[in-house]
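Ticket 4471: requesting a sanity check on a complex prediction with zinc ion. Repro inputs:
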Amino acid sequence: MRHKSLIEPNSKRLVLVTEEVLALISSYRQSGRDDCESGGILMGKRRGEHFEITFATAPQMKDIRSRCRFTRHPNGHQEIAENRLKSSNGEENYLGEWHTHPENHPTPSSIDMGDWKRLSKFHNVPLLVIIGGIQTFYFGIVIESRVHILKECTLL
Ligand SMILES: [Zn+2]
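Returned structure tokens:
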């Protein structure tokens, strides 16, 4: 399986994201003027301090979607996550959240920052976040309510 490799430069945590996950997020890219935001959850494996994102849920019926806002409803996502957890024998767990922005090179809004900090407090483990822009992605990791940017890197 092909991956993109990311690193948080200070803690040296590594995050691998499969091309399938990036392709799913890219398929919801807001390149049209009226396209709404999309989003879902990220799932995969925790390997010690490191992560591998292997799966993302697509937007579901009950999500609230507009041009500049995405509010995920638990319905749908939760069920898919539970099935995935079962079929992977407990190996693939909830890792975080993704959503899209109608900007070429996305940056988190203050609402995103607030949401992520709340989530990180609630789950009490590091969480991964991805924003899919029109041209590029934003990758982040939320550790103890602090958001750190993940940089792309090459694994030798
Ligand atoms: Zn956002």
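Notes from triage: The first helix runs from residue 19 to 26. Leaving this open until the requester confirms.
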